[in-house]
Amino acid sequence: MPLDTVRAMVPLRVLLVDDQQMLIEALAAKLSSTPDLVVVGHCATRDPHPDALATLLRPDV
Fold it and tell me: CB–CB of 38/11 below 8 Å?
């Protein structure tokens, strides 16, 4: 199977990072209705270790 075909079958993993909680919640709700995207987590930019969360969750974006 070509790599493009395999990639199209696997949802894109997204980590949301923003200081506006309402924005994160709205965006997560919108993205959850998209079958080729999955929100793996979220955090605020002011959180002490957003990079650690990204390392743990391993998002694509």
Answer: yes
